Amino acid sequence: MDELTSVFIQEGREQLQAMEDGLLELEQNPDNHDNINSIFRAAHTVKRPSGVIQCHFIERCMHQVENVLDRLRNSEIQVSSDLTGLLLRCCDQLSSLMDVLEAGQPDPSADTKAAGDALLVELTGYMAPSAAQSSAMVETEVEIHSSGGGMMITDAWHISVRFGPNVLRGGMDPLSFIRYLSSLGEILGLETIPDAMPPAADMDPESCYLGFEIRLQTRASKADIERVFNFCADDCDLRILPPDSKLAEYLKLIKELPEDDMRLGEMLVRCGALTQAELDQGLISQQAAPVPVVEEGEEAPPGPQIGEILVDNKVVQKAVVDAAVSKQTQVNEKKAVEARLIRVQADKLDQLIDLVGELVIAGASANLLATRSGEGDLIEATSVLSRLVENIRDSALQLRMVQIGDTFNRFNRVVRDVSKEIGKEIELVITGAETELDKTVVEKIGDPLMHLVRNCMDHGIEPAAVREANGKERHGTVELNAYHDSGSIVIEVVDDGGGLPRDKILKKAIEKGLVQPTQSLSDQEIINLIWEPGFSTADQVTNLSGRGVGMDVVRRNIQSLRGNCDVSSVEGEGTTFTIRLPLTLAIIDGFLVGVGKAAYVIPLDAVVECIEQKNLTTDRNFLNLRGEALPFIRLRDLFEVPGEAPPRESIVVVQFAGQRAGIVVDQLMGEFQTVIKPLGVMFPHLRGIGGSTILGSGEVALILDVSALVHAVSQSEEHRLLARPAQHKISAV
């Protein structure tokens, strides 16, 4: 039971997320019936297993939600903002109940129960049909349909019922409902559906696992038949199709059949499209069909299918058979996809990555020893081993790669709720959701993104009246965009609001003593003041922002992932936050360089090209690279490496965020599979170094932080140019 509960919690949360995504989509496209059906199926998928694991507080809540969704699906109620908001709050409540179940508590707390009871009261308002709807239902029931066309020609009612597990506990016998039905007319067909019945060892004698498909010939109305099941209305799934029902009703019933393992004939019988006797006769006709004569070596053509025989005998309409075949295809495809999926615990995956990292280091050591030995066969064998290790590394890292779209989709709900809370009209636009990055990065980037999005809505987007006065559309837009660039993933949070007010930022910074009144700052330096701890331009504290807590934490969290975050803004047009992160935190392809006796690793994705330069001048830090000024930095000077530089030095041209810079080193040592080892807690503010790795010789090499180096080079050269604009002469390569 513990294992079943664990699986239910995991899959239940996935279905709740699917419900939430569907509800947010429904609010934008209320006429999308496929989406409504998907929401209903997700709710039903949560409800059914909750009874199996005997979690009745989830089952009761889910049952009421399912009732409302069923009326929505049947167009008995209309989509509205209030309804979707209520159903979204129900998703939150169900998530809280999942937490209760996961914690092993027998019942939710008093506060959680009170919140659930309040939601059930609101749901009840959508479950009671209005007088106008009742009248329309009666008119539909007494309407006389002519034969042919889009009708199913039957003279009996079809009743599909699935009893819930608590029917027996409530003192009710399912057979008593069947006997009562027989008092209304004649039961022409009855099939017991035991699909929900578990193995004998897991069976609860007090739970009901039965369902029935019934053909009833009666002059009673639909309301009379419904009253038979009034006593168990809250604990059964009931569908009633009147005689000569529209073809669409049968197609809909086929699509919504909850059982998965069904043959075509069984499906048609269960939905009432034909009787068991008609199916048996069709099977007899199929067996009696003549076997075609084929010559030796030829493949025998397939025999007649049961669906074709039933259609030819005019027992059932072709559209119904096609719908049943489509349902079968969907079930088979779903099972095929599920069969290819294996759930693996994250810690096991982390252990695999650690072992692969050690394998990479061991392989590098073996390769180095083979090279030193000079044995050709050994060198060839280790090269093959290195190639296999590289393939294993790539495959293992791919297991950790997940699409960022799941993280982005969470913000649909955030934007909806916050926009209503602050009274603004805001739309979320997502692009690049299919972009993949390391699972660890995805997990840790959620909170910084949440803070940036909420700040864009609170500070960036103006109220609708202000936007109209400025010639903008009433509704504002927040964009989330992701893409790959130079071995990194770039995430952009963009709003089309009023931008960052530079004058206001500078004034606040002077008030807080962050800058001096006489200090001269560029526009970008003023904007970057928002990252300072405790800084806020909000005039008053709200639930969203205003306390000056968050932006510095955002930047610190991103930097802990070996990334960085920049901001750009145009007053009156909007603001863009750009986050750059490494694709993985475990293993990368590196480019090994040497300075003196030390070795350093540059991420290979950041390397553009390498240049050899003789007698590089030391009086300036830039050179002419094919007509463009390339600033550079000497690692020997940066890390204060003792000794003289060699006559011929090499320049590694790197690129980050569209900016290029050169890194001057003594020698180039080639590509190197780099297992990233984090720096210790003693080096939290070390600039220019992003980690360390172990070489095949056992020595430690530092991994260069390209982003920090490019930024430092650009800043240094900009200040030099401002100080001595007339003294620079660019030397040609």
From TrEMBL:
Record bears the keyword ATP-binding: yes
Sites of Phosphohistidine modification: H44
Domain HPt: 1-104
Residue intervals passing through the bilayer: none
Domain Histidine kinase: 385-585
Gene Ontology terms: cellular component: cytoplasm
Highest taxon, organism lineage: Bacteria
Pfam families, per database record: CheW, H-kinase_dim, HATPase_c, Hpt
Keywords: ATP-binding, Chemotaxis, Kinase, Nucleotide-binding, Phosphoprotein, Transferase, Two-component regulatory system
Swiss-Prot/TrEMBL GO biological process terms: chemotaxis
InterPro entries in alphabetical order: Bact_Chemotaxis_CheA, CheA-like_dim, CheA-like_homodim_sf, CheW-like_dom_sf, CheW-lke_dom, HATPase_C_sf, HATPase_dom, His_kinase_dom
Record field: catalytic activity: ATP + protein L-histidine = ADP + protein N-phospho-L-histidine
Catalytic activity, EC: 2.7.13.3
Domain (CheW-like) ranges: 577-715
A GO molecular-function annotation: phosphorelay sensor kinase activity
Its job: Involved in the transmission of sensory signals from the chemoreceptors to the flagellar motors. CheA is autophosphorylated; it can transfer its phosphate group to either CheB or CheY.
Name the record gives this protein: Chemotaxis protein CheA
Organism for this UniProt entry: Candidatus Dechloromonas phosphorivorans
